[in-house]
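Quick check before the chapter quiz. The format below is the same one you will see on the exam, so make sure you can read both the input and the output lines.
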Amino acid sequence: MSASPEFPLISVIVPVYNVERYIRRALKCLAEQDYSPIEFILVDDGSPDGCPDICDEYAAKDSRFRVIHQRNKGPSAARNAGLDVSRGRYITFADSDDWTEPDMYSSLYEALAEIDAEISICGHFEENPGGRGKTRVLPVGFMAISRESALEYLVKHATFEGYTWNKLISADLINRSGENGTPLRFHSDVHICEDVLFFCRCFINTDAVIYLPRPLYHYVIHEGSLLRSYNAKRKTELLAWDRIIELADTQAGSAAIISRQRYADSSINLMLNAVRFGNKDEVMEQKAFVRRYIAEFLSSPIIKPRQKIRGLIIFFFPYSSNRVWQFLKRFHVRWPY
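Here is the expected output.
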């Protein structure tokens, strides 16, 4: 089916790197999507395994698949490369180790078209190691979301957050949401929460967001993910929150204060990771960052009391925090990971 006003072209951008074990499942599910017309842009980000050949194999047998091969630059640069060549009126993303329900993109488009929105968002399945999955859907019905509420949901933990893969976005919105009305792109210097920053700009530039309370995407959590490690890329999360706070400060609602709370929470987690890896200089640096928003962290109604206790213990006793919790376990207090 060719693109038409009734059924516009959707572009699905898929960064690919070192996922040979999972990519065939991902591409098979994409190929089985019931929406047409659709294109799948596979961006091989210098993958050292068999992924480049698998991508070329799919492109050779299915004209909906297009492949870009580039040297390794990271997922943000890969998504940007896909955006640069995308032809769709609507854009979405998928990770090459996850998979999709067959009606995901038709459902997202129908939701978006129903009220002429520029962004539609769905729920997802969280696939954990060992098969302990969770369903992540907001406890609401099909609904339009105001700009202020959308920003608050975006920066809150355990809502629809900034995930790239659960949203369908108007290409026109992306093209006007960058600096001074230029096309928006992902920040290649940010490796954690770069998606939240991207969609923060999108949400600020639209009044039309729709939420579909159906889980349509399977998000696979791997033990070795960047969020569970400690390195220089992990620290760029604070750079993202700095920029998000700056943007949220220009808007009504509580997104700005929630972003400050998330900044403090991220700093506390980075401090704990620095302790685990024996980096004393980093512990002191993160402690200074926590001080910036510790008041907002402690007064937050969205952060549970036991998480606040954990944060205070890590802040004041970073090197003995585990021993403190061993003591508190006698009183049936659980460490809130």
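If your answer matched, good. The mean pLDDT is 90.
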